[in-house]
Amino acid sequence: MTTSAPTKSKNPVVRFLNMNTSGEVGGRDLPLWRQVLLQLLTLFITAEVLFPILYIVTLSFSSKTSRPSALELFPKEISFVAYQQVLDRPTANPVTFLQLLLNSFLLSVGVGLAALLVAVTAAYAFSRFKFKMRQVLMVLVFVPLLMPAIGLSAPLYLLMNSVRIANCGGGVTAFYPFTSCGASTGQAIFNLRDSLLGVGIAMIAGALPFAVWNLKGYLDTIPKELEEAAMIDGADPDQIFWQIVLPLAMPQLAVTFFLGFIGHWQEFALPWLFLTQPKDYTLAMTLYNMTGQYANSIPWNRFAAMAIIVALPVAIIYIALQKQIVSGLTAGGVKG
Questions:
Q1: DSSP 145
Q2: Is 165 a member of any domain?
Q3: In terms of residue numbers, what domain contains 327?
Q4: Sheet containing 187-191: which strands, arranged edge to edge?
Q5: What tens digit of pLDDT does each residue of 247-288 get?
Q6: Does residue 159 lie in a domain region?
Q7: Is 12 exposed, middle or buried (0-12, 13-18, 19+ CB in 10 A)?
Q8: Is residue 10 part of a domain?
Q9: Domain tally for the chain?
Q10: Does the structure show a pLDDT above 80 at 14?
């Protein structure tokens, strides 16, 4: 069965509106008017997305701390005074920019790696093993995703705050909640809640449900025959997991880690609720500390420069790994 080619109209206006100017060999041929509509739509979306970014970039290059009275999307001057001030002394707190950067890096990378290690083992167990109450446990893992993250902060706060070390005096040290100083509370030496370790544990608890479900769905697509063949060749369960399953799941592991890294790098609520010592502050907390009681008291150029610095690492990593991230996100749909 053959199909005849579409007949061309004799009207020159109709031929002009329906001609294909894309120059693409594959895909559907779009008439000119549809191409124009799609281009206008994409330009509108691009302008809407870039508008706040251009405004923040313009503010960061200004030498004035006051907010501009008119809307400026393009800088009238190029001044790096705000960036220098932020790098020299971000806020009035006695903490350097390098310390803030290190705290954010430790939280984001440490939490991402720890959550990934726990999640991939749990996801592998849910994907490959048949055990009692397996479906119930999967639902229980999914339940925290239905709740807002800030709603879990109160129980996490109380749980972390109950783990602390105190000096009772006389060479006696109490480790709450297992031992105590008796009638006196003693002098606090360490509080798990008021530490980067405690915040990291709380953030891992929030990152695990998504990571487990995301990895479990991908591990289901890896053929079990590969593991059975390795078992016939004499591989033990540890070798199968580390040398066969993990290399095949590497694209999804990278995507899961990167998505978690974005959230952990910009996390504000938990560190702000838990931490009280400036030496443990993160970049996101410092950005909030720049805001004053009124809008006129905010150093807008330094605030914008700090916002650019906080967002820059995530943007650079995403641009550099864009192809790998997209391939990892779509691999589960075509694998197997």
A1: G
A2: yes
A3: 90-334
A4: 172-176, 164-169, 187-191
A5: 888 888 888 888 888 888 988 889 999 998 988 999 988 888
A6: yes
A7: exposed
A8: no
A9: 1
A10: no
Q: CA-to-CA distance for 206 and 209, rounded, in angstroms?
A: 7
Q: Does residue 71 form part of some domain?
A: no
CB 108 within 8 A of CB 265: yes
CA dihedral (261, 255, 135, 149) in degrees, to 10, reads 30
- Go through 213-238 and write b for each residue having 16 or more CB atoms within 10 A of its CB, e for each that does not: bbbbebbebbeeeebeebeeeebeee
3-state secondary structure of 304: helix
List Cα–Cα distances, 138 to 65, 131, 150, 207, in angstroms. Answer: 52, 12, 22, 15
* Torsion from C-alpha of 8, 11, 16, 17, nearest 10 degrees: -90
CATH label of the domain that carries residue 175: 1.10.3720.10
Q: What is the pLDDT of residues 278-317, one digit of tens each?
A: 889 999 888 888 876 655 677 888 888 999 999 888 888 7
Q: Flag whether pLDDT at 123 surpasses 80.
A: yes
Q: What is the pTM of this model?
A: 0.77
pLDDT band at 9 (very low <50, low <70, confident <90, very high): low
